[in-house]
Amino acid sequence: MRSDGSQSAPLGLKIAAACGLLFLHLPILLIFVYAFTTEEKSFVWPPPGLTTQWFAVTWNRPDVWQALSLSVRVAAISTAIALVLGTLCSAAVSRTKFFGRETISLLVILPIALPGIITGIALRSAFALADIPFSFWTIVLGHATFCVVVVYNNAVARFRRTSGSMIEASMDLGADGFQTFRHVVLPNIATALLAGGMLAFALSFDEVIVTTFTAGQQQTLPIWMLEELIRPRQRPVTNVVAMVVMLVTLLPILAAYYLTRDGDQIAGSGK
Amino acid sequence: MSLDAAMVRATAPAILPGSGGLRGALSDLFWRKPKVLLLLMLLPPVLWLGIVYIGSLFALLAQSFFSIDEFSGLINREFTLKTYGDLFQAANLDIILRTVTMAALVTLASAVIAFPIAYYAARYARGRWKALFYLGIMLPLWSSYLVKIYAWKLILAKEGILTWLLAKLHLLWVLDAWLSLPIVGGNSLSVSFTGTFIVFVYVWLPFMILPVQAALERVPGNLVEASSDLGASPGQTFRNVLFPLALPGIVAGSIFTFSLTLGDYIIPQIIGTSRLFIGQAVYSQQGTAGNIPLAAAFTVVPIVIMGFYLWGAKRMGAFDAL
């Protein structure tokens, strides 16, 4: 009798799946090659030569550093806000059933379910109506709003696996609410929060659609890249920045995967 | 409340003494009245999302009922439906139709490409392979959106790798023939609708794979075996068994691919023709044209379309596959 696991897939399916995965990954690999090309004016393939000089040029560009620094600060603060709001919300939703629970879940997911341009222009028109000038905080306001869902998703998945009787046991043994939170709840959800925080950071670091509406004249790294894509000034520098951005976003994703891989494979779903 | 807590402590000294102070009082309060704790936990996120997000959405909706004074360019803050009327001009209807067509095609293509990957990952991949597939879908999903678009600019450029590859295979005539077609063609792939289409499919594909895989994971393997035992060809098994069971997953994935394509303005701006999509229309109306009311009315279009779409998807049970 043939059992489920030992069976091998039909050849056609194997080829189709492999081609699909190649389609997803080859373009990303190409970025790593172009960062070393000697060609300055066009996207010619194959690269006429390989060089590392553009890394040095990029290193000495103050505009890149400014954009990078703004992106990192925005992502750090947005992640911190999202961690607090997302944890509170997931704890409330998963420990009790109350009226309007579904609405709360929907409210959290909405900023990411509706296209970014709607979030962006909605925030922009709200700033316009309320006469709020663009600043660092207007960017954070937008980013934190759609980062909450990432933390929320990760924390909810973990709470679902954490049994409520542990909290009761802790209380029975004489711990007060704060001690229970500190010594029982927090260690249980810590890795899920860390994973959620990393994904939120990656999401915020990379966000461009909402940011174009809330940044005014400020340049985050993705906005800097967008400018370069529309009006290229120095292509090799863009190539290097593209590679760095790719690495900066890939590392947190890998880390988040290893933190949550036992059991709940929910880390990234529902970006 | 702290008095209450003190009474309990006095009458039942055999149990641990309370920790006292504000901290103990709060802890007791949360234990007795879980609703207070619930309220305190919900208040910050609900206030934030309610004020920042829902508030902004209402601000947007309000703006769409304002109008712009065509002579002064100032925004007239009085209720009117004139701005919605402007949506029905031929040029604007064109934009809406073009975007919806693109979204439908992108959704269809993503479903076709996603299915084999999802099916293999759900049914055949085990252990290390399963993890590899999972990462193989997650990494492209989460890696930088702009860099992915940039990669395609490199690929589709006239001097880029695709032209080089086709030249090596002596297939350049196929590309030239395709580019000479009306509507889908253009000077090079990076300034044609075909290019826009490819990049849309590429960028949203992982959003389709995940829910389809989730739906297929729930199909018991013996169902497929039973179907072939009963004499169905692989094609028949796919049509009558696998596809209907995967459909909720495909619909769930299509929510993402459809909605994201409707709202995107960066992909068609970087890789595509000068003919606008809804997102670009919104962006240029609020930016250079300064016509925020019309931009707001434009964004209501994807919201309404997605509303109907979600309603239909819910009836098909797509939300269980998310």
UniProtKB/TrEMBL annotation, chain A:
Residues 68-256 form the ABC transmembrane type-1 domain. The chain crosses the membrane at residues 12-36, 70-93, 105-128, 134-156, 240-259. It is a multi-pass membrane protein. Keywords: Cell membrane, Membrane, Transmembrane, Transmembrane helix, Transport. GO terms for cellular component: plasma membrane. Its main location: membrane. GO terms for biological process: transmembrane transport. SUPFAM superfamilies: MetI-like (SSF161098). It is found in: Cell membrane. InterPro entries: Bact_Polyamine_Transport, MetI-like, MetI-like_sf. CDD domains: TM_PBP2. Belongs to the binding-protein-dependent transport system permease family. CysTW subfamily. PANTHER family: PUTRESCINE TRANSPORT SYSTEM PERMEASE PROTEIN POTI. This is Putative spermidine/putrescine transport system permease protein. It comes from Rhizobium loti.
TrEMBL record, chain B:
Keywords: Cell membrane, Membrane, Transmembrane, Transmembrane helix, Transport. GO terms for cellular component: plasma membrane. CDD domains: TM_PBP2 (cd06261). It comes from the Bacteria. InterPro entries: MetI-like, MetI-like_sf. The keyword Transcription regulation does not apply. Its main location: membrane. It holds the Pfam family BPD_transp_1. The keyword Hydrolase does not apply. It is found in: Cell membrane. It is a multi-pass membrane protein. One of its GO terms (biological process) is transmembrane transport. The chain crosses the membrane at residues 36-62, 95-120, 132-155, 161-179, 191-210, 245-267, 288-312. Residues 96-310 form the ABC transmembrane type-1 domain. Belongs to the binding-protein-dependent transport system permease family. CysTW subfamily. This is Putative spermidine/putrescine transport system permease protein.
